[in-house]
Each structure stands twice: as C-alpha cells, then as structure tokens.
Design brief:
- This protein is mainly β.
- The protein has no helices and 11 strands.
- The strands form 2 sheets. Strands 2, 4, 5, 6, 9, 10 and 11 form a 7-stranded mixed β-sheet that branches. Strands 1-3-8-7 form a 4-stranded antiparallel β-sheet, with no helix packed on it.
- The radius of gyration is 14 Å and the shape is elongated.
Length: about 120
Amino acid sequence: QVQLVESGGGLVQPGGSLRLSCAVSGTFFRIYAMGWYRQAPGKQRELVAISTSSGSANYANTVKGRFTISTDNAKNTVSLQMNSLKPEDTAVYYCYCNLQTLTGPREYWGQGTQVTVSS
C-alpha cells in the first residue's frame, strides 16, 4: 500500500514564503512523476508543478518564477518552495505521484495541506 504524507502548509503574509514537502512510502517499483496540485474554494483542482522521471519540470504559468519543485529520489520525496506568495495562491495543495506498482501504473494523492496567503 502506498502512502503520501504532506507537511509544510500554513498561514503566510503576501510576499512571504512557504515550503511544502511530501514523502512517498510503500511498495512500488518506479516513480514516473511527482508533483503538486491545488484547489481553491469553488474552483477545480489545477496543476501547480510536476517533475518527471526524465528530469523535466513543468509549472503553471501563474507560479513560474516564484515556485520551485525539487525531488529526492533516494528518499522518495518531493518539495515545493513557494516564494513571493500572493493571496490568489491560497488553496489546498495536494501532493501527486504516478508510480509503477504490482498492478501497473497508478496515481496517488496526498490528503492535502492548506496554504493561506493573507495579511
């Protein structure tokens, strides 16, 4: 069974920074991609940033230049450094991964962590 455990959310003032982390544990053979999505109240879940096993990283246009995704393959973790935060970044942030498991490729989600940007 695969588990994703997130940490690092909270309340921050506009212009501030936060770092989210997610640790993946359980039985799997390969990580195809790891990343972060977010969902604001009344809106659909959207991609924030994703890192693939090929080494590429993609970001939503709204966070380019402010957010940085990083992975530690030895520890099976993915982090999101968020700088210059804006009120519109307020959302629940979900860790995501696509893994090769015993039953084939599968997607997994974390439980979500709240990020609130407000003065």
